[in-house]
Amino acid sequence: MSTASTDLTRLTAADTAAKVAGGEVSAVEVATAHLDRIAAVDDRVHAFLHVDRDGALAAASAVDTARAAGETLSPLAGVPLALKDVLTQKGIPTTCGSRILEGWRPPYDATVTARLKAAGVVILGKTNMDEFAMGSSTEHSAYGPTHNPWDLERIPGGSGGGSAAAVASFEAPLAIGTDTGGSIRQPAAVTGTVGVKPTYGAVSRYGLVALASSLDQAGPCARTVLDTALLHSVIAGHDPMDSTSLDVPVPDVVGAALRGDVKGVRIGIVKEIGGEGFQAGVRQRFDEAVEILTGLGAEVVEVSAPHFPYALAAYYLILPSECSSNLAKFDGVRFGLRVGEDDGNPSIEQVMGRTRAAGFGDEVIRRIMLGTYALSAGYYDAYYGSAQKVRTLIQRDFAAAFEQVDVLISPTAPTTAFKLGEKLDDPLAMYLNDVATIPANLAGTPGMSLPIGLAPEDGLPVGLQIMAPAMADDRLYNVGAALEAALLDRWGHPILEEAPAL
């Protein structure tokens, strides 16, 4: 790889777009540099399941043609992006990390995908993920795990570890993830990147293969707060194709990211997140970030959310229940894998059973069984119904907290990235990785994770989570940008410059 192409992969998305718009570099050169980077390192990272080299170069060429013709380009035109393999892209394999969808090429674009294309964003390919977004480590992919660029023997978070790893390894400056219980924010925390779960309904779910329909939300991943905001502004907005889409104006997230001023902002530390079970180095870096925010003029107070400790239990009843319903469509009849039809004269029920047994991984089967049980006659009220009542109490906790403060903060994840295989045989230990992120999904409120340093025990990234009221996503970017700028002043360089070279 040439020095020039290496430099192009290190640029921010904002700087890349400016250089393309100004004619300093072509979109094709930028795309080629990133495709070369993928070819050089992804055999070790395994961030991508499918790389669309021809499609990416064609999209980049179209941007160059538009610029040469004097057309006004969108703010991210010509910038490469990695797309999580849970969002459909017409004609491109979309597997959701599962054998049951191996080889499926959807006939349509998700709304998020269509908006990216319309903005001239260059989609490089589809990223690896835990199967159907069920996991916290990207080890549950049917196509093998993704590796954390900081330490290839460690997890990159999940379920969107492929998207976060692609950004952290400079294979793409931007990525799209989805967040059902922390699957954007937790990977961002353990890879030293920025990830945002927008307000539920702020980004269309049309074309997002559903895990839990009341929780799923697509969102942006990047290396800076501003880049994340620019991507957020492209994908957000009302979509009549999604019945849960909010028909309200998109907050000015880009303006907030450029402003980055927390003087007089009231920030609440969630009392119930960050105690027992949280790594000492995570807590240390969090406390240092709180001191920085206070020094910048923010008013920092402790806030209690008494029902947050019950969020994990409620979530792991609601999510499996919705997943057991949503995944019923994968039956080996209409599309995807089909197993056992050549074995004698099987019934349709036998084909369905054999297909699902062969196509679904252990974690997916585990959650389908849990959800089916929770929804079954005689147990619905005791389990699913009770979990929804807890969800309401958590929503009320958020409402009460936001009467006192503008945003809430906590560590994003209890620990830094753990070793591959370390928690694979202990589902409960794996589920506990999302203890800090799940409440925002249950309430539908937005959340951001941004890097705040390296844990002294292991030299791995630590993330801070910011949460805001629904449709106040701009507050995340204002606080995040202020903290990011202060940390950059302290470090003298972006945190990813400290990652070992691949």
Structural topology:
Layout: H1 3-10, H2 13-21, H3 27-45, E1 48-51, H4 53-68, E2 80-84, H5 111-118, E3 122-127, H6 161-168, E4 174-178, H7 185-191, E5 194-197, E6 218-222, H8 225-235, H9 253-259, E7 266-270, H10 280-295, E8 299-303, H11 311-326, H12 348-359, H13 362-375, H14 381-401, E9 407-411, H15 427-431, H16 438-443, E10 447-454, E11 461-467, H17 473-491
Parallel strand pairs: 2-3, 2-4, 7-8, 7-9
Antiparallel strand pairs: 1-3, 4-6, 5-6, 5-10, 9-11, 10-11
Helix pairs in contact: 1-3, 3-4, 8-9, 9-17, 11-13, 11-14
Protein model, in words:
The protein has 502 residues and is α/β, with parallel strands linked by helices. The chain has one domain: Alpha-Beta Complex (Amidase signature (AS) enzymes), CATH 3.90.1300. It has 17 helices and 11 strands. The protein has an 11-stranded mixed beta sheet with strand order 1-3-2-4-6-5-10-11-9-7-8, with helices on both faces. The longest helix has 21 residues, at 381-401. The radius of gyration is 22 Å and the shape is globular. The model has no long low-confidence stretch (mean pLDDT 95). This is Glutamyl-tRNA(Gln) amidotransferase subunit A.
